[in-house]
Design brief:
- The complex is a heterodimer of chains A (420) and B (121).
- Chain A has 420 residues and is of the alpha/beta class.
- Chain A contains 13 helices and 11 strands.
- Chain A has helices at 2-27, 35-56, 62-67, 71-99, 104-111, 118-137, 144-167, 171-193, 272-276, 314-322, 344-353, 378-381, 392-404, and strands at residues 199-210, 213-220, 232-237, 250-258, 262-268, 285-292, 304-309, 329-335, 357-363, 385-389, 412-414.
- In chain A, the strands form 2 sheets. Chain A has a 6-stranded antiparallel β-barrel.
- Chain B has 121 residues and is of the alpha/beta class.
- The chains are: A alpha/beta (420), B alpha/beta (121).
- Chain A binds chain B through residues 30, 32-33, 37, 79-80, 83, 86-87, 90, 94, 97, 100, 103-112, 115-120, 131, 134-135, 138, 168-170, 172, and chain B through 2-3, 5-7, 9-10, 12-13, 16-17, 20-21, 23-24, 26-27, 29-30, 71-72, 74-76, 79, 96, 99-105, 107-108, 111.
- Bound molecules: flavin-adenine dinucleotide.
- Flavin-adenine dinucleotide binds at residues 232, 252-253, 266-268, 270, 309-312, 314-315, 334-336, 340, 364, 368-369, 389-391, 393-394, 397, 415-417 of chain A.
């Protein structure tokens, strides 16, 4: 049973990403056409299928995420299938034009956006929307709020692409596909972005945790979200007397689940929205979707090596708060300065009282630390499961440092909190 | 990695599009005028080619053998096939909701032209 569930988690996304696009291509495979034109049509259908899978993978539904191996994984495949769709869709018009190449004029006419016809215009519009949406996806400096709206262009691009098919007169298999795409986009908008899937909570307290960090406590007003220690939730905050919410759901790890259903979030001011949260006050309404993820397996059989960078310590604090450790566990905690280090007194107290837990707390200053002397030896790591959580740069540096010490990728677990 | 792939493929795409465009500029204009040895085709002969496997159509005074093109036509066969063997100018000019065919289609037509339509018998 557990094995079957694990297999579903592992294979569902890769399988979907192959079966849907290939299924479309096989179903709509044109017979008796010149190979280049057939390839042009097939790339169109592959792109269509990949886009649908990519859309499905951006739904933020806890149960769906559990089947598909977690939200973090879904996002990775969402990006991968989205880009793959874009690549084959670039080939689609080029191949259709290339098929007419013996006559350069006809080839250009096939492709030309200046042709006076909606089927061609809508195809171009769909492709340009995808291109525009992707360009903005890859520009890191855009503010998250603006970025989200620009990213939504991609959804519009998908719908326009399907309208392109209908204008070509291929409405028969396309209408159901259009309906599914529109349903997924609507589902995400209503349940995810507008928060219909969210549970109501209220902020009962907020205390400073470290420099530019607060711990916010949330009490459920109705049915609580289903969260286990180490998981993260998507939370949005309303307005208080002084505090202004920013109207967006952001991911935060739950550091403690107290009094059964009370959620503690440790929030570091890293951007516009989280900086405002330093001033959050009791009484502010909150909405919570989740829980998701949980990359640390507390029931694993091996000793564990944890590395936390900055506020990335939160999931480990959650596990320590959830109960006694089953295996020897060593935490390497990196922070810029003591003032920045959230939960340091609590961690020191646990290390003093629990013989299974070793804390190695390192103040690194503003420079990127030399990881070499900080990591355990290859011998010490040979049986350990490694869990990493922190800024992407740190996680990347750790992955290669661990690989150099002979730790295989299978034993390195990490969660990137990059939701773009 | 993904970002690089995106930029490289997007650039390659636009270069290819530019290539098609330049190719189009370099070839001399398509010859749309009638060829010298014109074959004259009447309604009766036209009507003998009225099945998808052998489909002629008369459009704006010219006859086209579009048998080879039929499978390429973007719309459903039921829309175009009934016009095989017939004078189809009006259908051609009033494609879906009264819109004309695109210049793309116009540019394709000469490839399939086989003669002049003389109507009558
Ligand atoms: C699973 C997970 C859960 C998270 N949960 C929360 C949460 O609950 N609340 C929240 O606010 N945020 C959360 N985050 C966000 C994330 O941890 C922070 O964005 C990140 O830690 C930056 O925080 P910081 O500003 O303290 O780090 P920084 O001050 O930038 O760095 C922290 C430490 O990492 C080192 N470091 C930084 N960059 C590198 C590098 N390139 N190479 C080597 N070392 C480096 C620094 O020297 C320093 O010691 C979570 C992230 C993950 C992965």
């Amino acid at each position: 049973m557990a094995a079957a569930a694990a297999a579903v988690r592992q294979w569902s996304v890769p399988l979907l990403s192959c079966v849907v696009p290939v299924g479309f291509a096989v179903w709509a495979f044109p017979e008796g056409l010149p190979p280049i034109r057939a390839a042009g049509i097939v790339t169109g259908w592959l792109g269509c299928g990949l886009l649908l899978v990519s859309l499905l993978l951006m739904l933020r539904e806890p149960r769906l995420a559990a089947w598909l191996g977690g939200l973090e994984r879904m996002y990775r495949w969402h990006h991968g299938t989205g880009l793959a769709a874009y690549l084959v869709l670039l080939l689609h018009p080029l191949l259709l034009a290339a098929n007419n190449l013996p006559a350069a004029r006809v080839a250009w006419q096939t492709l030309s956006p200046f042709t006076e016809s909606w089927p061609v215009w809508s195809g171009w519009l769909g492709l340009l929307l995808l291109m525009g949406g992707l360009v903005t996806t890859f520009i890191r400096s855009i503010r998250y709020g603006t970025w989200r709206w620009l990213h939504a262009l991609l959804g519009l691009g998908v719908l326009t692409g399907l309208v392109h098919l209908i204008l070509l007169g291929i409405d028969e298999p396309v209408l159901p596909i259009l309906a599914v795409a529109a349903a997924i986009l609507g589902w995400r908008l209503i349940r995810g972005d507008l928060g219909l899937a969210a549970r109501p909570y209220v902020v009962t307290s907020a205390r400073p945790l470290a420099a530019r960090s607060v711990e916010v406590v949330l009490r459920p007003l109705g049915d609580p979200a289903m969260v286990t220690p180490g998981q993260f939730v998507l939370a949005e905050f309303g307005n208080g007397a002084r505090y202004r919410g920013c109207g967006e759901f952001h991911p935060f790890t739950v550091s403690t689940i107290a009094n059964r259903d009370e959620l503690h979030l440790a929030i570091k001011a890293l951007g516009d929205c989280t900086t405002r949260m330093l001033a959050i006050e009791p009484g502010v309404a909150a909405r919570v979707i989740g829980g998701f993820g949980g990359f640390v397996d507390p029931h694993g059989k091996a000793p564990q090596f944890w590395v936390a960078g900055g506020i990335g310590v939160t999931p480990f604090v959650a596990l320590l708060n959830a109960g006694p450790l089953l295996h020897p566990t060593r935490l390497l905690y990196l922070y810029r300065s003591e003032a920045d280090a959230a939960f340091l007194p609590e961690l020191r107290a646990t290390a003093a009282s629990d013989p299974k837990f070793t804390l190695h707390a390192v103040e690194t200053g503003d420079d990127v630390p030399d990881l070499g002397p900080l990591l355990p030896t290859a011998g010490e790591l040979s049986r350990a499961e490694c869990y990493l959580c922190g800024p992407p740069g740190l996680v990347a540096a750790l992955k290669s440092a661990l690989a150099a010490r002979g730790v295989t990728a299978q034993h390195v677990h990490y969660e990137n909190f990059e939701f773009r | 990695m993904m970002r690089k792939l995106f930029y490289v493929s997007t650039a390659a795409f636009w270069i290819a599009v530019a290539g098609f465009w330049i190719g189009n500029l370099l070839v001399p204009g398509t010859d749309t005028s009638a060829t010298a040895a014109e074959r004259e085709i009447g309604s009766a002969e036209l009507a003998r080619h009225a099945v998808p496997q052998d489909c002629w159509m008369a459009i704006r005074g010219n006859v086209y053998d579009i048998t080879a093109y039929l499978p390429d036509h973007p719309s459903r066969p039921s829309i175009i096939e009934p016009w095989c063997g017939k004078e189809a100018s009006e259908a051609y000019d009033t494609k879906t909701k009264g819109r004309k065919h695109s210049p793309e289609a116009d540019a394709l037509l000469p490839k399939y032209r086989i003669g002049r339509f003389v109507g009558g018998g």
